[in-house]
Amino acid sequence: MLRMLALTAVGALISSTAIAEIRIAHVYGKTGPFEAYAAQSHNGLKLGLEYATDGTMEIDGEKIVIIEKDTQLKPDIGRAQLEEAYGDDDAHIAVGPVSSGVALAMLPVAEEYERVLIVEPAVADSITGENWNRYIFRTGRNSSQDAIANAVALGGENVTVATLAQDYAFGRDGVAAFKEALEGTGATLAHEEYVPTDTTDFTAAAERIFNALADVEGEKKLFIIWAGGGNPMSKINAMEPGRFGIEIATGGNILAALKAYKELPGMEGATYYYYEIPKNPVNDWLVKTHFERFDSPPDFFTAGGMAAGIAIVEAIKKAGGAEDTEALIAAMEGLTWETPKGTMMFRPEDHQAMQSMYHFRTEIQDGKDYGVPVLVREIGMDEMDIPIRNQ
Asked: Is the domain of 31 the same as that of 137?
């Protein structure tokens, strides 16, 4: 009888060990206008987990399981899907979403369930600012990082800028941060234009911008902050802003969007990632592996997803497991880790990932059907005074 009990106990232990797993929920907009961003982010997340675990997809013998949830880019659905991931699926960590508006709806859920949410790639400053809580970490860049990098690239004395952005958190936070950053460069922001996210006719907005800049002396630039379809850059360029001495400028984007950049050789801005820019072992592996598996280069949000995947593995190793959220938070605050962009670091004060950005100039290159963002210089994390906005 004792032998039977002993065997039963051993069997139970073996069974428990065999089914031990680390559950990671990817809650992201698989369907909708940001579908391309979502696919890149998901592929990158899987590649990051693979890279950081040397292909085993295990951490200390525990199998990593990825649970997918589709927000459909709707805040209420995103909130419900995260509640389901933490509650029904008992996810240890969640990653996502694509949209800033959806992310803002999801933040309180992480606090309610006391589980970590790694925001990737939603950008709005308010995510790690006024709406932040201690369970939120972000591997993606925020609006201030975009803005300060672009201000460094575009600003200067005798430069006047107008902005065009989408009328929601991503666009408004982006312009607010850009305006603040631009002040330190000597440039002037003369006009702000906001349009609905699904705008396809930019005639009226462009005319207001042209009127605001027409009589201004010196360099004049229209800085566009845009996500998804609509392509305002090409449509406004077709309206010949050069008649008024206005140059179009924008930050980096996914490869499909860079096709519009081909119309604007010499255009400058700052980007989060382009696969030929970073020179480090992680990016070398990502580029090689992505070409082998997808017959294409890794894109903007592939790098971000990979950064999140590596951060998860490093944090769980440092914390000694995924079960204890407090141990995870302690492990992640101040964590430095290597990504396709080089070293990132979770700032302890607001859990925003500090990271490099890249000042680029667009070139036309043989064999590429898009404008290539060629590196002018790397803008290191120490060069950007990113405000802490959660206090």
From this structure: yes
CA atoms of 37 and 42, how far apart (whole Å): 9
Task: Say whether both 347 and 370 belong to one domain.
Answer: no
Provide the token pair at 214.
């027409």
Q: Is the C-alpha dihedral spanning 305, 309, 312, 314 positive or negative?
A: negative
Residue 100 has pLDDT above 80, yes or no: yes
Rounded distance between C-alpha atoms, residue 126 and residue 138, angstroms: 12
Whole-prediction pTM: 0.89
The b-or-e profile of 321-333 (16+ CB within 10 A means b, else e) is: ebeebebbbebbe
Do 253 and 260 contact (CB within 8 A), yes or no?
Answer: no
Q: For residue 256, what is the domain's CATH number?
A: 3.40.50.2300
66, 43 contact by CB (below 8 A): no
In the prediction, which pLDDT does 18 show?
47
CA-CA-CA-CA torsion sign (337, 289, 294, 57): negative
Residue pLDDT, tens place only, 281-313: 999 999 999 999 999 999 999 999 999 999 999
Residue reference for tokens 């389901």: 84
How many structural domains does the chain have?
A: 2
